[in-house]
Amino acid sequence: MMNLEALQEKQKRMAKLVVVPPSGKGYLPKDEDIIFSLDIQYVGEDAYVAVDIQSYAGRKWGVYAAQTKAGMEYIPRYFCFREGPPLAKTIRKVIELSTMQPSLLIVDGHGIAHPRKFGVASWLGVELAIPSIGVAKRTLLPYETSPALFRGSSSPISLDDERVGSVLRTQDYVKPVFVSTGHQISLENTEAIILKLSSKYRVSEPIRRADHIARVYAKGETDRRAIFLGTLEE
DNA sequence: GCGACAG
DNA sequence: ATCTTGTCGC
Ligand SMILES: [Mg+2]
Fold first, then answer.
1. Local confidence pLDDT in tens for the 234 residues of chain A
2. Which of A233, A227, A230 is nearest to A51 (CA)?
3. A107 CA, C2 C1': Å apart
4. Is the CB of A42 under 7 A from strand C?
């Protein structure tokens, strides 16, 4: 196991570096901007990472996948230290090999909707100095009101009276997802982007593609729609 | 002290 | 996240 008190201090320290713009400010997507959407599947401590690449307008550039190691064991609230390192390592490699520079990262987990305002999306955004969004399927913080039952409805998630995220309904009558700023993007734009990308299902299309490829790779299989990079060393 | 707790 | 069989629905 690890020293959780030290990791907690690291989160508090790094959380001060997170940039949370007010509505109307921060990163604003343009049609040709590149979005990296990430997911990981695990086999023990082996992490099978997938990076979906598409433009904001929807042009698909493909999916890359690589195998590396989890940062540490999974402990709720310390998830950034498990999934952050393998994501960062894979993203650096994909940028190098693809020549594509992401303007935005979409992460399967929370941003600042976290007890110390430092979820994995924030960790990754700060680490790479790239705007990031956190989208989770379950919340870590309690919330008062549920959003209306229609696609696009949202309600607040707060921490000590500070707005840190939203419960967002991405499909009519379907369970909502939980979105928050990761780094350098407003909650308003975060909601708009996730809603736009979740046109068919509860989970956004690019995250679904990343999830699928990571799953295929973890099973030792392959898929012609993706580029498999093998094991990342160091 | 006990249970909950993103993926 | 993973473990697992069937089942419902497009
Ligand atoms: Mg995931």
1. 689 999 999 999 999 999 999 999 999 999 999 999 999 999 999 999 999 999 999 999 999 999 999 999 999 999 999 999 999 999 999 999 999 999 999 999 999 999 999 999 999 999 999 999 999 999 999 999 999 999 999 999 999 999 999 999 999 999 999 999 999 999 999 999 999 999 999 999 999 999 999 999 999 999 999 999 999 987
2. A227
3. 20
4. yes
Nearest CA to A178 out of A165, A163, A187 is that of A165
Sheet with A226-231, strands from edge to edge, namely A154-159, A162-168, A177-183, A132-136, A104-108, A34-43, A46-55, A60-69, A226-231
Decide: pTM greater than 0.95: yes
**Nucleic acid strand B: bases within 7 A of protein CB:** 5-7
What phi and psi, each to the nearest 5 degrees, are found at residue A8? -65, -40
Rounded to whole angstroms, the Cα distance separating A116 from A77 reads 8
Domains and CATH numbers, chain A: 33-136+179-231 (3.30.2170.10)
Residue A216 CA, distance from chain mean position: 20
Amino acid letter at A17? L
Three-state SS annotation for A91-123: HHHHHHHHCCCCCEEEEECCCCCCCCCCCHHHH
Bridging pattern class, strands A60-69 and A46-55: antiparallel
